[in-house]
């Protein structure tokens, strides 16, 4: 399907944060853009904000003045709906209210030609519900940009029950033409990103509630071991706890209170206290002048007399860490075994979703120290470890000293199942697998959405594959047993992969 020709005008309704950004994107792609807002002066202000942002690029020599002038010529603030009549694509980015959006869509249907595509940038309202009263519901499609629209690559193209294939395909191709990374999703609560991302926040909030460690340490682990741009607490401080909590609550209620989406009391408390994050100076962290972000808890230089690393069997996903450790001047001995590492008194193993204490008892191995997952063990600057209640102080010291030899900062956290990154990745993959099973989007579109929409270092399903076809399923099963909660029930596709001995991409 061909994208909309650049000679076809585009209309954007609502000139707020999203509408102005979308107008900029369409204008930069070469379309004439009509920008309308019901608030007097708002459309002109939206155009001015585009001018201000891009003027800085011109001043830095990153954009030609002539290109900016031409772009601003193409963006035309208008005051009345009838001035949009020529548009071939109308994108609404007005207030998030079903009735107000429906009323606008009815007015647009009365005004626009039969071939005009109507798109909604809604982030939470069902496209199917929005189209229900339309005369031609097949022409309505979701075109969900991310904030700020000119910078964020992802566009979720949302198909409602009645949306025609051609309309969805044309909008998909158009988003691609505009330099975006489009994905297609069905109209389900949270679409892809706002649904699949819930565990990223939920698991860390739960770990915080369980006194596993403090927020600064969890953020540092998520960044420095997980490879995510921001930790969950600094990110929700940026998003605003009111907004993030509202999205979680809306997804939770839309899925009939499925405990997988359970909101956090810790975050509720912040919202109730008015600690909304950066925007009002206090969230998990303080942003008032002079305040400093707390340092993550890091094990001080640990003492150990050991100089030999014993690798027992296949270390699996820990193999790159073993290579990194082997390059630190240690003697390395390989022998058969269950895929664990021994260093001094310590026995180290990758978490499988059980608490270290439980696994130490099951494997009759008192000095067990579990290592968390890292996105890339060759580069991780921090790793979380958790030790069994039975482990000796020397074993913990030996384990820390081993990792420190490779320049890795160690965060020794309380013994909780799945540590931090492993349970985050496992629960993200679980949600992604369920979304794939339910036909929300394809496996590759789900992964692409999480990378392009949220800058995740890897899509959850490809990440799950990289850990082997059964590990994520095993971690979830252990989490489910540890908590006795439905929240961690493994998705059917993960279970199927395990028995088929294959991954999502293989
Ligand atoms: P905003 O409040 O910044 O802007 C909305 C604009 O729409 C306002 O200027 C308002 O005057 C105007 N407006 C309201 N009703 C109107 C009507 N009937 N006709 C014409 N103009 C009208 O809101 P924002 O953040 O730009 O959000 C707009 C839409 O985009 C919402 O549906 C929201 O859910 C969605 N969205 C928001 C994202 C965000 O991060 N802010 C991300 C993705 C989607």
The hetero compounds bound to this protein are: 1,4-dihydronicotinamide adenine dinucleotide
Residues in β-strands, percent: 5-15%
- The gyration radius over C-alpha positions equals 26 Å
Number of domains as seen in the coordinates: 3
Quick one: CATH class of the largest domain? Mainly Alpha
Termini separation comes to 29 Å
Number of distinct beta strands: 15
Overall 3D form: elongated
CATH topological fold name of the largest domain: N-(1-d-carboxylethyl)-l-norvaline Dehydrogenase, domain 2
Our count of helices gives 20
Q: Give the averaged pLDDT, no decimals.
A: 97
Largest sheet: 8 strands, mixed
Strands of the widest sheet, in order across it, are 3-2-1-4-5-6-7-8
Structural class: alpha/beta
InterPro entries: 3-OHacyl-CoA_DH_NAD-bd (IPR006176), 3-OHacyl-CoA_DH_PaaH (IPR011967), 3HC_DH_C (IPR006108), 3HCDH_RFF (IPR041040), 6-PGluconate_DH-like_C_sf (IPR008927), 6PGD_dom2 (IPR013328), NAD(P)-bd_dom_sf (IPR036291)
GO molecular function, one term: 3-hydroxybutyryl-CoA dehydrogenase activity
Pfam families: 3HCDH, 3HCDH_N, 3HCDH_RFF
Keywords: NAD, Oxidoreductase
């Amino acid at each position: 399907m061909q994208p909309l020709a650049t000679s076809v005008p585009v209309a954007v309704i609502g000139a707020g944060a999203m509408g102005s950004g979308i107008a900029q994107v369409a204008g930069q792609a070469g379309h004439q853009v009509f920008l309308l807002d019901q608030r007097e002066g708002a459309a002109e202000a939206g155009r001015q904000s585009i001018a201000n942002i891009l003027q800085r690029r011109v001043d830095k020599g990153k954009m030609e003045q002539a290109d900016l002038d031409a772009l601003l010529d193409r963006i035309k603030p208008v005051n009345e709906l009838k001035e949009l009549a020529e548009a071939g694509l109308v994108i609404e980015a007005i207030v998030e209210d079903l009735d107000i959006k429906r009323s606008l869509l009815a007015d647009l249907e009365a005004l626009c030609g039969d071939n005009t595509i109507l798109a909604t940038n809604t982030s939470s309202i069902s496209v199917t519900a929005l189209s229900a009263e339309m005369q031609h519901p097949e022409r309505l499609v979701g075109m969900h940009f991310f904030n700020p629209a000119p910078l964020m690559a992802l566009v979720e193209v949302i198909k409602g029950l009645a949306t025609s294939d051609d309309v969805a395909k044309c909008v998909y191709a158009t988003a691609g033409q505009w330099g975006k990374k489009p994905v297609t999703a069905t109209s389900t609560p949270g679409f892809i990103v706002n649904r699949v991302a819930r565990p990223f926040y939920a698991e860390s909030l739960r770990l915080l509630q369980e006194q596993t460690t403090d927020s600064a340490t969890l953020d540092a682990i998520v960044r420095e071991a997980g490879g995510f741009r921001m930790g969950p607490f600094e990110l929700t401080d940026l998003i605003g706890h009111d907004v993030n909590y509202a999205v979680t609550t809306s997804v939770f209620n839309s899925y009939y209170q499925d405990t997988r989406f359970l909101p956090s009391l810790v975050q509720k408390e912040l919202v109730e206290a008015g600690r909304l994050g950066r925007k009002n100076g206090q969230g998990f962290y303080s942003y008032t002048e002079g305040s400093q972000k707390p340092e993550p808890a890091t094990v001080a230089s640990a003492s150990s007399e050991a100089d030999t690393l014993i690798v027992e069997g296949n270390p699996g996903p820990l193999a790159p860490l073993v290579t990194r450790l082997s390059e630190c001047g240690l003697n390395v001995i390989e022998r058969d075994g269950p895929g664990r590492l021994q260093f001094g008194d310590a026995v180290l193993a990758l978490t499988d979703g059980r608490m270290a204490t439980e696994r130490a008892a099951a494997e009759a191995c008192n000095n067990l120290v579990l290592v968390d997952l890292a996105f890339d063990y060759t580069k991780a600057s921090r790793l979380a470890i958790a030790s069994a209640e039975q482990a000796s102080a020397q074993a913990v010291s030996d384990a820390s000293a081993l990792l420190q030899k490779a320049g890795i900062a160690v965060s020794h956290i309380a013994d909780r199942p799945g540590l931090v990154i492993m349970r985050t990745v496992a629960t993200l993959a679980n949600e992604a697998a369920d979304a794939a099973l339910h036909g929300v989007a394809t496996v590759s579109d789900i992964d692409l959405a999480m990378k392009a929409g949220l800058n995740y270092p890897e899509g959850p399903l490809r990440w799950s594959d990289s850990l082997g076809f059964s590990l994520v399923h095993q971690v979830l099963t252990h989490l489910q047993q540890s908590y006795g909660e439905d929240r961690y029930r493994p998705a059917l596709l993960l279970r199927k992969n395990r028995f088929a001995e294959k991954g999502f991409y293989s």
